[in-house]
Amino acid sequence: MGILLNVFMPEGFGFASRLPGGLGFLSAIEGLAIGLVVMLPMYLLRAMGAGDVKLMAMVGAFLGPEDVLGAILATFVAGGVLSLAYAWKIGVLRRTLQNIRFILYSGAVKIAGGSVPTLEDAPETAGKFPYAVAIAVGTLGYLVWKSTGKAGWA
Question: Which residue of 4, 31, 58, 100 is surrounded by the most CB atoms within 10 Å?
């Protein structure tokens, strides 16, 4: 749908601009590819589901190559904040922070030893978080921030 809208809407500067309109086929494909490529390593490390990767690719198809990077950054920030809040709410914040420390230390040891770290070596999980919520909050937050004119490339 993002590709179709960017192709068939009157030409403009994207959905997140002062002159809304389609970016064109190539920009929609580039945004889709950037969203996919940036999130794919998280899936390969088993830190994220494939649906979350496809959701960010879809966001990229709507926003295009420039705005999808801002949306991804905002999504990472929102994901971190929401994950900590969720862990606190369900009473596993201490275990979550211990797990983060363990993952960072064991990853550093593996890198120093010349191997690639994976999340399969993680200790007992403290819970799962639906990352689609972070993608939605981060993307909407980025779009609101951009509409206020605070973004340098707005």
Answer: 31
Beta bridge mates, 11: 22
To which residue do tokens 């951009």 refer? 146
Domains of the chain by residue range: 2-90+127-147
Q: Which tokens belong to 151?
A: 């973004």
Tens-place pLDDT, residues 74-111: 999 999 899 888 888 888 888 878 877 887 888 888 88
**Residue 59, token pair as written in the block:** 């966001």
The structure tokens 């689609």 sit at 132
DSSP assignment letter at 151? S
Contacts of 9 (CB under 8 A, 6+ apart): 21, 22
Residue whose structure tokens are 């929401």: 82
Q: Which two tokens stand for residue 5?
A: 């809208």
- Contacts by residues 7-16 (CB-CB < 8 Å, ≥ 24 positions apart): 14/63, 14/64, 14/66, 14/67, 15/62, 15/63, 16/63, 16/67, 16/143, 16/146, 16/147
